[in-house]
Amino acid sequence: MSNQGKMDCGRRRLIVATAAVGGSGVLAALVPFVSTMLPSERAKAAGAPVEVDISKLETGQIMTVEWRGKPVWIVNRTQEMLDTLSSLDSAVSDPKSEKAEQPQYCEGVSRTIKGRNPAISVMIGVCTHLGCSPTTKFKNGAEEGMPADWKGGFLCPCHGSTFDLSGRVFKNKPAPTNLPIPPYRYLSDTRILIGEDTQGA
User: Fold this and answer.
1) Rounded distance, CA 108 to CA 159, Å?
2) What's this model's pTM, rounded to 2 decimal places?
3) Domain containing residue 62: CATH number
4) Which domain holds residue 129?
5) CA distance 120 to 82
6) Where is 5: in which H helix or E strand?
7) In this predicted model, what pLDDT tens digit does every residue of 126-184 receive, in sequence order?
8) DSSP conformation class of 92
9) What pLDDT is stored for residue 48 in this prediction?
10) Is residue 200 part of a domain?
11) Distance between CA atoms of 161 and 127, rounded to whole angstroms?
12) What is the strand order of the sheet 153-155 is part of?
């Protein structure tokens, strides 16, 4: 091979090597740039909205997601569960949730967004007494160690506060108010954004 051919071959190798190094440099620079577009752990802890897919949440089931370091429950209540709520108005301390921490657009005994699926309940799973996390007691009656007239809901294991299936606290319990409802809105029938309300605030 002539000296000219050797030089051309060397140049080609140099160009290929330079392009490879340059390409990997662009990729290395792109990864942190893309990652800055995702919410950081600090942003999540500070309250960045959390998108939740509820398409696989069957009736009678509950799922838990984290928002602002707190558990948020999403419950898909059965029709039977919903039917019990009105009958409990005299048993709960704040039946209309007038003292509760919740968005103005959540209403009625279901404590849900008007015009949306009333079966889907969203609430922060932290007792308003001293911050313990209640446990689910969805079954009626004494089957789960509850009173015989129990219609399903939540029990705080720390000091015995009980809540109905809308998170309303029963009378004469340590918890002063109903379970809070975070700001949230529907992105579709099967996707909820927790931490952002219907006005996008």
Assistant:
1) 27
2) 0.75
3) 2.102.10.10
4) 43-194
5) 10
6) helix 3-35
7) 999 988 999 999 998 888 889 999 999 999 999 999 999 999 999 999 999 999 999 99
8) B
9) 87
10) no
11) 8
12) 135-137, 153-155, 162-163
